[in-house]
Amino acid sequence: MNIATIELIGASIGLVYVILEYRASWWLWIFGMVMSLFYIYIWAKVNCYAWAITYLYYLGAIIYGIMVWKKNNAENSYSGISNLPKKYYPRCTTIVVLLTFLTFFILQRYTETLIPISESFTTALSVVGMWLLAKKYLQHWYVWMVVNAIYTIANFWLGLYFSSLLFAVYFVVSVLGLVRWRKLAGE
After folding, report:
1. Does residue 26 sit in helix, strand or coil?
2. What is the mean pLDDT of the chain?
3. Which of the four, 45, 46, 49, 129, has the lowest number of CB atoms within 10 Å?
4. What's the burial of 86, exposed, middle or buried (CB within 10 Å: 0-12/13-18/19+)?
5. Mind listing the pLDDT tens digit for each residue in 136-180?
6. Does the reported pTM lie above 0.70?
7. What three-state secondary structure class fits 180?
8. Could you give the residue ranges of the DSSP H alpha helices within the chain?
9. For residue 87, what pLDDT is reported?
């Protein structure tokens, strides 16, 4: 199977995933797991090692997310959606900054990636974004807006057109998801 076919399958699974995320369905975690496996392979094939590792991290975060959501009445449950407490803003920002610099250093020194800045920043944001999603904080949508915008442009530049389209859809769904989750949280 060529990379374009694998990318098309992974992107298709990713579309189902984002629809389930938008609906706050527990099933998002299952589709996220399968999509992650596809994208670990895709990113490794195009030398985007930080992104491959990010999707490996997603597999662990998915297990955590399943446990958290199961504990909080999972299936299609909007219970527990809330705002990130202000005390976490400096912590999240610090994690993003430190992870960006660390990832950039590693990528520059040990890989032949073509997009080290994009990979580093989106990897750091994604680590925080998955934690925010698992905790059902509304702010995860803002993180995904930034990540998805960068992924859309970077994937197009890399010639991964199905992935670029997928992340463009993710960007739009991030905006719609934020509006929906705000309403569901009573804001």
Report:
1. coil
2. 89
3. 45
4. exposed
5. 899 999 999 999 999 999 999 999 999 999 999 999 989 998 998
6. yes
7. helix
8. 3-22, 28-45, 49-71, 88-110, 116-134, 140-158, 161-184
9. 96
Joined tokens for residue 29: 């975690």
| Residue 137 structure tokens | 């904080």
Domain ranges of the chain: 3-75+86-184
Q: How far is CA 86 from the centre of its chain?
A: 22
For tokens 């509304």, the residue is: 138
Grouping H, G, I as helix, E, B as strand and the rest as coil, residue 82 is strand
128, 103 Cβ separation under 8 angstroms: no
Could you read off the pLDDT of 64-82 as tens digits, one per residue? 778 877 776 544 455 678 8
Q: How many CB atoms lie within 10 A of CB 70?
A: 13
Confirm if 170 and 13 have CB atoms less than 8 A apart.
Answer: no
